[in-house]
Amino acid sequence: MLTHYSSATLDLEKIFDAHWYQEKNPDLAIAQCDALEHYLKYGAVQKRSPHPLFDTAWYMGRYPEVVGGDQNPLQHYLEHGARRGYDPHPLFDSDWYLERYPEVVTSGENPLRHYLERGALGGFDPHPLFASDWYLLQHQDVAAAGINPLVHYVEYGAAEGRDPNPFFDSDWYLSCNTDVAASGVNPLVHFVCHGAIEGRAPNPLFDLSNYRRHQPSVALAGINPLAHFLRFGIEGSSLQERPSKARETHQSDAAYGGWLWRNRWDSTAEARAHAAVGQLLQKPLFTLILTDTDPSADVIRRVLLRLEEQIYPDWELCAFVSKACLRELKAFLKTRPEAAQRLILLDTRPASPLSKNGLRRADEAARGTHVLLLSETWRLAPAALTSIALALDRYPDTDLVYSDHDHYRPDGLRYAPAFKPDWSPELLLSYPYIGAAFCLRRDLFGSALQAVVTNGEGLPSDLLLCAADKPVKVIHVAQVLFHSEAPPQIMAEKVSQQTWQRIVQAALDRRRLPAQAYQPDWAQREDVPATALKFADTGPHVAIIIPTRNYVRVLRKLIVSLAQTRYQNYSVHVVDNESDDPETLEYLAQLEHQVIRIASPQGCFNFSYINNQAVSQVEADNILFLNNDTEIIAPDWLSAMVGYLSIPGVGAVGAKLLFPDYRVQHAGVLLGTYNGLPGHAFGHLPAGEHGYLRYAEVARDYSAVTAACMLTPRQLFLDSGGFDEHRFAVAFNDVDYCLRLGEAGYRIVYCPTASLIHHGGLSRGAGDDPAEEAAILQRAPRRDPYYNPNLSDDGLFTPRADGPAWEFAALGSSPARTNAVRQLPQ
């Protein structure tokens, strides 16, 4: 039937969607003809579209030479338009698609046809502002139905208020542009075709005019600023303010919006909270100390009224006020006798609340069993105190409780959640990740207060570090209990770099840790309070074990790069696993380092066996397992790893591994995030990016690190049985080892200042044994304590759509100790 319609006939038949065309054009029943025949004879002239992703009217308006031609628009696109870079739809960018996926150019396929047949299935993005994988991740119903994500968005998603990418907030865009909402047009289509040109922002944190002002080339070239930012980010932009905030939070309002909807506070949640309070065996009295200096009477009233919204009833408020404020409050308190009984008022003159003396006075006046610091700019969730009380009821000897938090705008909209890991002492030495909202046992509050070195800014975090000087029991409530008015940073407490560095150094000195706190370059550039630790280049003996087989070129590169290591007390032991390449054998024969030859047992490669045997043949305080395809790029790498291993309670230290193009390969191990299997945190994170809450840049605790570069005490390794040669001969032996250490009370630390290039598996092939995968699935805990349960299972640190709603049975994680180490199993 179609032989007279040129060589593009096959593409036309593949793209034309007869079922969709009939649904959109019910009058075809009257015409009594085939859908494709109708389109070719009548539909194209009538500007009817043949497919959801080919907009006939838009195409004809965009490319006027089509009008009046002898071809219908779809034929024109297939035969001429695609080659000229014409787009079939405002949300399908042909040039961008071909540039992004050069294999399509090589194949000679029409880009739209490729996307419909293979690209969408492969997660290809059809437009710089449509993130296919992200869309499916946020909308599991679409993924489960197997619908093309862009087709779904065009047909249904936009009308349902679903967002096309993490940085385009559809609801916000329509609420700010009522003319667009009234027109019923797809908000992203409007932004692409008109909104960006007119200066309409895609989200509340992205200022188009500011971006163009800092990027004049973007304006001159007519490039969509958001598309430019998503492609080049901060590195391609001199703008550092608004887009950096969007990048920093990593969460879009839309993604978090879904989480907020599931965790909304309603009558059901309130009833559960009341029921939970009624079941408490112990009811602590919370003393909330208002840290605002010289608050007005209105501030005190507002704080009291907000606290009265708490479901949990046993609390008191301590505030520092002037005599004038006290006079104003008297009339209010006469009408609220219950509030008056809850209120402790101290004279603000001798000392401000955010000072050592001020908090000491508050401690002396307090009646509570537990203390929380509170600012007027903080909001508490109605169940905040309930959740903390439940955690304390479950674990009565808990010393410290903290939770997740987010931020709110003046209009009340919540955004930028900080979903934190469970207790991570090394992360707390890197930056104040807990923030200013936490609950301390009263006696610990008083004793920690004696050691603080700051007044004013930073005092809450100083207090935390002082409390953690000795082993403490800590519970992290994985729920957003506090909301901060402050702009989102890596923490919720305002503290300068210099003050934070002084606080950390004081903690190191008190703990007699031989380290110097300093501000890494990235923290100085971005003006955030974060520290790294510098350790001495001398210390215990480290035996570096390097298994290898052939591939002398990568081994030679590693050996040469090791020479730049500043740490002085180490030895290198190359473990030759049956190399048979003459060049490799010749190199090993003249190598100045020890070569240990270990054959595979029963002729089967067994990474665990090879390393266990090597450890038994060397003498050293510490063992560093190092892949032969790594390369040293930071001279102080080993000094940093040995330093962190010297901290009491640390059982293993891992490095930051980078691909040759400096994308992140490994920044710690997350459990259960790769189809249930362990996988690398921040894998493929581009160079220059820091990851969610900057976790890729700071030392912190994880459940495991990779043995591609892992340091551990030799005796501890031997006492724990080494790597499991039977269940994990090739893969997951490092994860299993780290999990055993964790079960014995040791911490596993990721050290980003120890950065290495990892060229990646050149000596051995890829692919994990299904039996080992099954074993680690059985072995690993159901929940990774260092990956917040509110985050998605894919390890991308985005809020999960099915995250835990308000539940009050088991909110707290098991209490963790800072330095308490249990006996290893024999």
UniProtKB/TrEMBL annotation:
List the PANTHER family. Answer: RHAMNOSYLTRANSFERASE WBBL
Q: Where are the transmembrane segments?
A: none
The record's section on Gene3D superfamilies has: Spore Coat Polysaccharide Biosynthesis Protein SpsA, Chain A
Q: What is this protein called?
A: Glycosyltransferase 2-like domain-containing protein
Q: InterPro entries per the record?
A: Glyco_trans_2-like, Nucleotide-diphossugar_trans
In what residue span(s) does the Glycosyltransferase 2-like domain sit? 544-655
Q: Which Pfam families match?
A: Glycos_transf_2
